[in-house]
Design a protein that fits this description.
Length: about 350
Amino acid sequence: MSNDGKNLADIVKNVHRRLRQELYKTGDMESVWINHCRNVPCLKVQLRLYVKNKICVNFQVLRAKSYLFWLIFSKIILLKKYASSMHKLATEHWEQLRVSNPATSRINWTWSFLQYYFFSGGLQQHRQKSNSDTEWPKLILNESKVTVLDVGSCYNPFGEYEELDVLSIDLCPALESVYQCDFLNIPLGKTTVIDGQSVLSLATNQFHCIVFSFLLEYFPSPSQRWTCCEKAHLLLLREGILIIITPDSKAAHSNSKVMRSWREALSAIGFKRIKYEKLQHAHCMAFRKSSVESVLKAEDRELLASKMYIPQDFYNPSDSENEEKDEIKFTEAELAEGFTNLPLFDE
Ligand SMILES: C[S@@+](CC[C@H](N)C(=O)[O-])C[C@H]1O[C@@H](n2cnc3c(N)ncnc32)[C@H](O)[C@@H]1O
């Protein structure tokens, strides 16, 4: 990979690493998350507030406000930089590989699975296989389009497919075709509400497909990943599909324990894994919403949420500046290595 590509990948990885460090320091994932994404969608409001408060006579207060403003502003810049780096990495560097070797592409994989499931009889096959007495509702495609919610979309990679009706959302979108939305905290209700460039709420039982492509490892805690999967279950139509793609450049077996653990957690939510494939740089999985909402006890939920771990969750953050160097200290270092890298391709 070129130096430019490596630099872009470092910007992306550093944001993930910083979140994990913050969580280790404070142990409070809620405040870490609020801090991370606070005010991202309301830069205009922040600027207005700041200008209004500039008349404040108390110098200390003004200094504190300036500092706060600087903090907020630097965070916004950080997330914007992340968005543009991720966009460039995917569309310039990874795209070259997609063209030369289409089998390596998570986008191609997702599209070919959706074609099979929704347009080539896959849905019917799985309905029969499920051996359920339940009367399955007919999953209807509106105008023959598959409704897709692409969470953490960044640059709307699925927008190119005419057969898909895609709602792309991201904490900090790289493009205007992607709506701003914090999926972790978005309210779910009867209708989807969009205001300008932001999604304010999402309707349950609405989507044929939800995509988490390179999303879950962004979160520093297993329970945040679990929350996303629970939300996906509520938002999907019955028999709908959750696609999860997670980066890993190692051989399939190296992280099979992690993938098994995710599968168990998702099964408890009501998702059945119906397709798994290891591509050169990613694990690709399709989960089918096979049951209506399950009622879980609080202690079971906690245990199940912990199953959504990734190896980096166990790093000592004081070592994390030199994460790669320090891997040898961990018993699961082998396992962890694959996940410390977003796909970094050797040229
Ligand atoms: C590694 S990028 C993946 C981009 C794209 N899906 C792909 O496969 O190339 C992860 C994206 O998830 C977004 N993200 C992280 N947390 C999110 C949240 N709570 N709600 C919405 N998007 C989120 C980030 O802003 C980032 O753009």
